[in-house]
Design goal:
391 residues, alpha+beta, HIT family, subunit A, 2 domains, 12-stranded antiparallel β-sheet, 3-stranded antiparallel β-sheet, 19 strands, globular
């Protein structure tokens, strides 16, 4: 087997970053745990791969101004493969997966991206973006029949080489490595040409639509400021730039707090939409994960693990969820939009899900199934059954 020794770059908490590339030129980055048992050498990706797909196209919905990406190449992505064909496991002679070597945490460019590649000459064999956005003003203009190439980047973040699991099943050390990878990739993706917002997230469970049981998340780097953030910007313009500080003070003084540390507070929001919804705010204003300190990341690892395990303790079976890291845009409102994590689940009972029917889907008018206060009480009781995360 051919091997290479990728350049080692030391990050926080003893994590080591080792960047390399896959056979078709896509970037692959290993993030090694502190004190890892892995050596410095990594196997070379010797697969013969098809050319990378053409960059997808965005179409503008003139009624809302939203840009809708049409990425037909995603129709052929992996769907619930057996363990021996897991595309996120380390390669074996019978499994030509995406990652050549055994790893702790690995991040690579998605083979079937919704966005990308970005406008970056260093992306190797990437196809050309034939009609890229012409700056922020171009994308905010409204008109019928407007299209642009979906420049950007989609990355897969593999939390573990194991076939099954989620962030909540990681060790404290591994969780800290993933957090370091999120922060590193947020900083790097924010520097790519044409990128305006970076979004790390994890989908967990078949009921959410997960097609790979492997413990992993994703990072999207968008060429525009997302609709959810655009609405937040409007709210801030109608209230004040210290809105998040006021929200944190309001929630900390109430009965919906479920977990509080030195640097982070988790709470069920006052106007929760979902049956299970928890928000996490840092006590200090930071625009994104790259701005957090080592101390904040050190506390976040056990804090986040315990929170997810508490959500799982609500029922006898694992809870499906979306864990979304909302970060400020790359180029605006960074002093006003605070990094915040939003965990949402449609699970309203042990065997029941909340479906977004007419009012929610068609009109965006939500109807809650439980009071936020009662759900916060249930979550606190569940968290009382979860031990402190020490390993």
């Amino acid at each position: 087997m051919n091997t290479e020794t990728p350049t080692a770059i030391e990050l926080g908490a003893g994590v080591v970053k080792r960047p390399t590339h896959l056979a078709d030129g896509r970037e692959l980055i290993y993030f090694d745990d502190p004190g890892t048992a892995l050596g410095a050498e990594r196997a070379v990706d010797a697969r013969t791969l098809d050319p990378r797909p053409a960059t997808a196209t965005m179409r503008q919905d003139v009624l809302t101004g939203d840009w809708i990406t049409v990425a037909s190449n995603r129709q052929n992505r992996a769907f619930l493969p057996p363990a021996h064909l897991d595309p996120l496991s380390p390669q074996t002679p019978t499994n030509p997966s995406e990652i050549p070597s055994l790893y702790d945490v690995a991040v690579f460019e998605n083979k079937s991206p919704s966005f990308g590649p970005a406008l970056d000459a260093a992306v190797g064999d990437a196809p050309e973006a034939v009609d890229p956005p012409r700056g922020a003003d171009d994308l905010e203009h409204l008109g019928l029949g407007r299209t642009r190439t979906s420049v950007g980047r989609c990355e897969v973040v593999c939390f573990s080489p194991e076939h099954e699991g989620s962030f909540g099943s990681l060790s404290r050390t591994r969780a800290r490595t993933v957090i370091e990878a999120w922060a590193d990739r947020t900083a790097a993706l924010s520097q790519l040409p044409g990128i305006r917002q970076v979004f790390p997230f994890e989908n967990r469970g078949k009921d959410i639509g997960v097609t790979l049981p492997h413990p992993h998340g994703q990072i999207y780097a968008y060429p525009y400021v997302t609709p959810r953030t655009q609405r937040l910007l409007d709210t801030i313009s109608r209230t004040s730039d210290d809105l998040f500080a006021r929200i944190l003070e309001f929630e900390q003084a109430g009965e919906r707090v479920v977990l509080r540390g030195e640097h982070w507070t988790a709470f069920v929001p006052f106007a929760a939409r979902w049956p299970i919804e928890v928000h996490v705010l840092p006590h200090r204003h930071v625009a994104d994960l790259s701005e957090t300190t080592d101390a904040e990341r050190d506390e976040l690892a056990p804090f986040y693990l315990r929170l997810l395990r508490g959500i799982d303790a609500l029922y006898d079976t694992p809870t499906p969820y979306i864990a979304a890291w909302h970060q400020a845009p790359v180029d605006r409102a960074r002093d006003a939009i605070r990094l915040n994590l939003q965990i949402t689940s449609p699970r309203r009972a042990a065997e029941k899900l909340k479906y977004l029917a007419g009012s929610e889907s068609a009109m965006g008018a939500w109807i809650g199934d439980v009071t936020p206060e009662s759900q916060a009480e249930r979550l606190r009781a569940a968290l009382d059954t979860v031990p402190e995360v020490t390993a």
